[in-house]
Give the backbone structure.
Amino acid sequence: MKSNQKFENPFGNIFEKAYAQDADLIVSPTLPVDPNLQGPLFGTGPDITGTPTTPSSGLATIKLTSDEASDLQMNDSFTLKVEILSNDLNISGFGVTIVFNPNKLEILNTKYLDTYFTNNNEINADEFNGTISIKGDALEDAITINRAIAEIEFAVRSEGLIDINVDEDSEATFLNSETGENIPLNFLNFETQVGVSEVTSTSTTMISPTQTTTSTYKVIPKSDIESISEIWPLFVGGLVLVIGLWMKKASQKDEDIF
């Protein structure tokens, strides 16, 4: 080969073609995103308030719970969370009916939390009859749900046992599957004890009446005493005069007798 001749690599085209061929085979995978998942890899998903409850095996469950129910006293308030735990079951919609004693609890506020089951979602509170109904349908496909879907704030109006229950017999309590069928359910209700005010017992002691004698006396004012001291010489003089006249009269009678 001559010194000024350019070297041509006979394998260059082969490598370039092979590299291009491999590059064409590289495919960016598309991952299905579960709206329940959080973080930068999966996006934000639904707005989940609080910590989602860890799924467990078994029946789907509707759970009533509160983190503020210890040491409650009269007129205290607390927040009840309504959770749905479908575990690994996809649901397309739900309904929950809650019952409570309106003589013991007063509703202060209600809040719908879920951002995926927002078709036809609503909360209806009937404080007079002591019922709250919550419902919502999925925006698109049926998914699993293991989180709180609503919060109800109550005020305590009575002492003793407080219980709040899911109405299991209500037609408005359900979880719908992907095909719209009702899913068998388990229920975890809520109860707590409101502190009873301390009662202090008082004893009554009967005391026999005691008869007392009260001496009544008159207190002579100082001014009266001063007045007496001023007229005392006159009183004495008058007394001496009376005695003198009496003695003189007595002596006259004796002379008359003799």
Notes: Residues 14-56, 198-219 have pLDDT under 50 and may be disordered. Residues 222-257 form the longest helix (36 residues). Residues 62-191 form a domain with the Immunoglobulin-like fold (CATH 2.60.40.680).
